[in-house]
Fold:
Amino acid sequence: MKRVAQTIRLRPERREEYLALHREVWPGVEATLRAANVRNYTIFLRGDTLFSYFEYHGEDFAADMAAVGDDPETRRWWELTDPCQHPWPDTGTGGNWSDLEEIWHLTEESHP
Structure:
């Protein structure tokens, strides 16, 4: 399993629009993510900074992410959400979103 964390800025003047979209994410967008082996996708907000986290449970991350990007409904969704976002200068895996480096992870404790 691959953990992916990313960040992007939210345009303050588009905040309510973005939040409203995410109160009712399109079922087709969610289905595409699930089909691409994405699990536990979560987006957090602090001030004007968005933080996302998801777990990837597939075998070919690049191909699965390309399939998400090729999905027509997801592309229409991005036409609505992208104008609400203000990318950092260094974008990564998620296109406009910047990847965060994992520096620590609490693992399950072994019991004798």
Q: What stands out?
A: The two ends are 25 Å apart (CA to CA).
